[in-house]
Amino acid sequence: MRRSAIPHRTHPSIRLVLLATALVALLVSAAAGAGQANKRVAKQAENPTLGRTILTTTRGRTLYGLSAETKGRFICTGTCLSTWHPLVVPAGVKPTGPVKLATIERPDGRTQVTFEGHPLYSFAGDSKAGDVNGEGIKDVGTWHAATTSKASPAPEPQPQPESPYPY
Fold this sequence. Notes:
The chain is an alpha+beta fold. Helix content is 13%, strand content 28%.
């Protein structure tokens, strides 16, 4: 059998399939690059009870860290999670707030937000924004509100000049 000298032409429907496949691949790679979405998960608030500026959820609930949870070591697991609720984000989401936040993978596979190396939690005993009922609770460590700075001290009263008229 002799091959023809006429070049082989690609059928138009095959070209369309190849073009569609290339377009889908391009869209998937663009979506994968955009997968590192940012999500605002925290804000800060002056807390008069503590006299400090603390981190809160976007709804104003105090965020806490456990002193013993450092360097990837989790203490709050199991029944602890019914009282202390981890601040989590979907995998691949970068948490944002008024300070630098990071993430760590929990033992159950969820992605938890951290501040200064401590995983962040809200406390079931806080019933409204501004509550700090979890502050100082001792467990295997001590729970503390995530503090971003101490509140500015009230200015001291300035001495008043003496009156030339004592009476």
